Amino acid sequence: MSPKRLLTVVIALSLPLFVQAATYDDLITAAKMGDAQEIANLTARGASVDTTDIDGNTLLMLAARDGHAGVVDILIQQRAKLNARNSDGDSALRLAAFRGHQKVVELLLAAGATPNNPGWTPLAYAAFAGHLEIARLLLKAGANINAAAENGMTPLIVAARNGHLPVVKLLLANGADVALTTEAGDTAADLALRGGNTDIVDVLRQAGGRFSRSVDLEVR
Hints:
This protein is mainly alpha-helical. The protein contains 13 helices and no strands. Helix 1 packs across helix 2 (36-44), helix 7 runs parallel beside helix 9 and helix 9 (155-161) packs antiparallel against helix 10 (165-173). The radius of gyration is 23 Å and the shape is elongated. The N and C termini lie far apart (92 Å).
């Protein structure tokens, strides 16, 4: 085979790899930038709707994280995996709940994304960040109000610690357990007090919340 013919064959064999790499980069960029039309075009040409980046983030996660509802909607229509989790254990719903992207949360829940998962739940993320309406949506969708993360943090505990009074009131009104503790033994009242959130301390006390023994002695 002549050198020229050999070069032609090598280029022909390598071309699909270049095309695949370009498609991959275009998909990731489109998801991050919220380019719904590009996502639609690429997936129509056979690109996988469940493509992931190096950290295991699917296109749906990337779009949900940054609030790109149009891309999220298209990916849902094309049956992207709703409950996939990345290397940190995050799902698309968890990321949207943490970032406060209510429209994305609504789309994901309507499509059947689960509001419950092991570890930090979407509700805990919403409570941590103080996103009241998202917390309300998740509760309506069946989120476990007392689900605890690996360190024992519950939605009520993180909301109390971070000073999110409206979220605390919402959780209490829906039956959050004020007696639950972290793995270190802290209650929601303990962490609210340490954070200087005295208004939350008062609300928790009225709901039957108690301090741990060491904190209780300090308060007295």
